[in-house]
């Protein structure tokens, strides 16, 4: 991961630091795995566990799209992702910003447990 790129992402998403509902901003996908190519967009995941309604999610995404270049970034809200993508984010991410990295890890534990429980059940049924 290039330092210049990380600095640019931090700067582009700095406006979210003061939002109480945003607990973390993560880079995931090809850039986090250092497998990007010329066609890769920059995958960003916003962790906002206090948001509950579709209106709240839409409001946050609207604010993000008003402030960042949609041609450069693909921004997703963690809580809205399907479980398999949540696991991709959890396993392969770089922290752009986190209120508390330890709380973030603890928050992710719940999803790891669900994933592990489902995979154990799937294999037991076969």
In short:
This protein is an alpha+beta fold and about 130 residues long. The chain is built from 4 helices and 4 strands. It is globular, with a radius of gyration of 15 Å.
Model description:
The relative contact order is 0.18. The mean pLDDT is 90. With 126 residues, the chain is an alpha+beta fold. The protein contains four helices and four strands. Helices cover 46% and strands 17% of the residues. Helix 3 packs across helix 4 (101-125). The chain has helices at residues 3-12, 54-67, 83-91, 101-125; strands at 24-28, 42-47, 73-77, 93-98. The chain starts with a helix and ends with a helix. A four-stranded mixed sheet has the order 3-2-1-4.
Poorly predicted ranges: none
Overall SS class: alpha+beta
Number of helices: 4
- Strand percentage lies at 15-25%
* Domain module tally: 1
CATH architecture verdict: 2-Layer Sandwich
CATH class wording: Alpha Beta
| Order of secondary-structure elements | HEEHEHEH
* Strand neighbour order, sheet with most strands: 3-2-1-4
**How far is it from the N-terminal to the C-terminal residue, by CA?**
40 Å
**Could you state the CATH homologous superfamily?**
Beta Polymerase, domain 2
Tell me the radius of gyration: 15 Å
Strand element count = 4
The main pleated sheet reads as: 4 strands, mixed
Q: What is the overall pLDDT average?
A: 90
Roughly how much helix do the residues carry, as a percent range? 40-55%
Q: Specify the overall morphology.
A: globular
CATH fold naming: Beta Polymerase, domain 2
């Amino acid at each position: 991961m290039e330092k210049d790129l990380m600095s640019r992402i931090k700067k582009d998403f700095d406006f979210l630091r003061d939002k109480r509902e945003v607990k973390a901003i993560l880079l995931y996908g090809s850039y986090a795995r250092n497998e990007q190519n010329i066609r890769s967009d920059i995958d960003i995941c916003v962790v906002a566990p206090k948001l509950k309604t579709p209106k709240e999610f839409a409001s946050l995404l609207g604010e993000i799209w008003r402030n960042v270049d949609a041609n450069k970034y693909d921004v997703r809200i963690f809580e809205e992702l399907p479980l398999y993508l949540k696991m991709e984010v959890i396993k392969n991410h770089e922290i752009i910003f986190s209120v508390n990295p330890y709380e973030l890890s603890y928050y992710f534990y719940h999803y790891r447990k669900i994933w592990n429980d489902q995979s154990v059940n799937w294999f037991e049924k076969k």
